[in-house]
Amino acid sequence: ALLGERLGDDLVHSVELDPVVARQAAEALAQSGYRPHLRVGDGEKPWPGLGLVDRLIATCALRYVPYALLRQVRPGGIVVAPQAREFWSGALVQLRVQDDGTAVGPFCGGATYMPMRSHRVPDLHDVQGKGRTRAAGLDPAQLLDLGFALYAGARLPGVRLIHKDTEEGVQVWATREDGAGATAATGEEVWQYGPGFLWEEIEQAWWEYESAGRPDAEQFGLTVTDRGQHVWLRDPSEVIGHARGRLARQAVRRSAG
Q: How far is C-alpha 179 from the geometric centre of its chain's CA atoms?
């Protein structure tokens, strides 16, 4: 309705996967005097026959930005999408489509939306093995900073983290698909499970983040190409590399070129 008011119905197109929800939305819009172009379909795919658009706004969270959607945005056009990052948080990204079809842009703070159906995953993986304890090297509440979530999500791909508030602070759970897991609560020891030392990897990522000056979320950005997407810090050339198996290496590498 807001876009229809600003731009006029003929310039607004919207797609909804659920036919019932789509019908309810169309009825509500019509009762308010708006009749934009509506269709039932998969929002992860381009709108057939629509041609290039100037703006694309996702109103559900995406685990990744589908490259096929970028192909329907004209060069110089803007894509705004909330991302459902695996490392607990949601973050809003604003991308500008380039002449070569890629898209680059900054994160613009937090945003929590219902994930697109095809992008939904369980909150945590199954963990393996008996638990073992160790002292926590940092307060788990520190992990809930959005800037760190973006950094750790890039450094530790596939690690999922959720949390809940407690009377003492917070408790977090982290898992990875290989069966590794860890849980920590404010003021308590860490419990780790499965192969490797997942909590140590998370702590290492935190110390790297601190050494980088604890950058806030707005200093991170995203680049999307036909080969995937990657997160960068402060400049698109400063890509944050994966840490798994090489924690001692430098966190941020300069991309070729």
A: 22
Q: Is residue 227 part of a domain?
A: no
Number of structural domains (the chain) is 2
Write out the chain's pLDDT in tens, 257 residues: 888 888 888 889 998 889 999 999 999 999 999 899 989 988 888 889 999 999 999 988 888 899 999 999 999 999 999 988 778 668 999 999 999 999 999 999 888 878 777 777 776 677 777 788 888 888 999 998 999 999 999 999 889 888 889 888 999 999 988 889 999 999 899 999 988 899 999 999 999 999 999 999 999 999 999 999 999 999 999 999 887 554 433 333 333 33
Residues 6+ apart with CB under 8 A from 219: 106, 147, 233, 234
Strand partners, 183: 173, 191
**Predicted structure pTM score:** 0.84
In a domain, 51, yes or no: no
Print the domain residue range for 148. Answer: 132-211
